[in-house]
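Regression test case RT-17, inverse folding.

Input:
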């Protein structure tokens, strides 16, 4: 990129403040220095390249996945990929022009509707990057409403979510605490929490509301909403989290799909965009963007949120997935995930793996290992099994989904038995 210096007074003052004499000097520290020429192979024809890529793909190992911790490997019906591959969807950006964006707007509207049904809330958005940023934004909704500057995190939040939350707090002068006080803007809990514990949300709601705070619930495993009581029915004021588990692959950790759902009283505090259904001048049904009150292009420096990208393609995958699965299908996914996890936990318990969960769990649980987690993970990986996530010196976090069969569970246990 060529930089053309502005010879004006402002530019000179800026360079002086930076302690440099020119733009070349300013960018010298980041200009790459190539000590040698790159050792690249000769160019290949398309046929040769295709063969080379096929050869490389043969080195991949497909593992039976028992890892969760915020990204969940659920089965994706083949129809989802066919729908998301349509060019009118995957090339689209934010649908500002409603008259040419009815398909995308309808998808957003339906995604919002699904998330409201699942969370038990009144309004949902469709424009968050991931569960971590959505959770942080949800906490700051509570700070704005209550005009308080403390966030009480009262259970085991995903460490990645907590890191993002701390980054948000540093720039806003907000404090994260482990106790509820009269200064708390909200009680923030994850359900199921990072180690899989399922909590009684009514208890947290009562405590929060008695202190004049809000209850913010983060849900990282969205299929849990199919069989657990909806957070909105338990007194939650804001529900945020990750919807990747609905029709989006794990894909080495991304892309993810965040969401926020709120009570209708807080609708103007919600970040991102809201899509609504209306009628045109001839009485025909149509979809439009109805609210973008917090976006920086509307409120500029007064905006409390600057997230403006729309995760519409990931939301489309989630919407297609939920439409295909239906209420019964999604419940079956959740039940199978629950059963596989409890089956594996029971068998590991018989081998001396002590359950660490203090409450009932859904499809994820922590156990104390009689052998080092690193050794366990390495041994299972050699047998084509991703064993779980090591947490600490002697514990491992294990997740099961409906993709894992009874035989997969038995294979896991047999490898462990051999190690013991």
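Golden output:
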């Amino acid at each position: 990129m060529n930089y053309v210096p502005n010879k004006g007074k402002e530019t000179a003052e800026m360079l002086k403040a930076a302690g440099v004499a020119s733009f070349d000097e300013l960018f010298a520290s980041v200009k790459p220095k190539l000590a040698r020429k790159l050792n690249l192979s000769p160019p290949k024809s398309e046929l040769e390249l295709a063969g080379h890529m096929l050869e490389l793909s043969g080195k991949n190992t497909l593992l039976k996945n028992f890892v969760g911790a915020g990204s969940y490997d659920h089965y994706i019906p083949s129809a989802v990929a066919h729908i998301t591959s349509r060019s009118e969807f995957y090339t689209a950006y934010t649908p500002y022009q409603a008259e040419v964006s009815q398909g995308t707007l309808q998808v957003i509207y339906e995604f919002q509707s699904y998330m409201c049904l699942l969370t038990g809330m009144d309004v949902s958005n469709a424009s968050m990057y991931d569960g971590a940023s959505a959770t942080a934004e949800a906490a700051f909704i509570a700070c704005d409403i209550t005009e308080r500057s403390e966030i009480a995190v009262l259970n085991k939040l995903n460490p990645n979510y907590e890191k993002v939350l701390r980054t948000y707090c540093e720039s806003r002068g907000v404090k994260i605490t482990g106790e509820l006080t009269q200064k708390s803007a909200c009680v923030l809990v994850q359900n199921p929490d990072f180690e899989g514990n399922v909590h009684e949300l009514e208890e947290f709601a009562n405590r929060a509301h008695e202190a004049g705070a809000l209850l913010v619930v983060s849900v990282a495993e969205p299929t849990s909403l199919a069989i657990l009581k909806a957070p909105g029915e338990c007194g939650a004021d804001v529900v945020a989290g990750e919807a990747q588990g609905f029709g989006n692959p794990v894909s080495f950790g991304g892309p993810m799909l965040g969401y926020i759902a709120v009570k209708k009283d807080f609708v103007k505090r919600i970040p991102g965009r809201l899509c609504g259904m209306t009628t045109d001048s001839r009485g025909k049904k149509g979809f439009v963007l109805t609210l973008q009150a917090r976006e920086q292009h509307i409120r500029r420096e007064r905006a409390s949120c600057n997230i403006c990208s729309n995760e519409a393609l990931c939301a489309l995958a989630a919407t297609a997935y939920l439409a295909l699965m239906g209420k019964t299908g999604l419940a079956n996914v959740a039940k199978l995930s629950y059963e596989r996890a409890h089956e594996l936990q029971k068998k590991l318990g018989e081998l001396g793996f002590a359950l660490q969960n203090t409450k009932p769990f859904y499809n994820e649980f922590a156990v104390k290992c009689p052998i080092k987690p690193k050794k366990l993970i390495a041994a299972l990986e050699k047998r084509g099994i991703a064993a779980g996530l090591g947490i600490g010196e002697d514990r491992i976090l294990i997740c099961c989904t409906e993709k894992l069969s009874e035989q997969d569970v038995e294979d896991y246990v047999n490898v462990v038995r051999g190690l013991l």
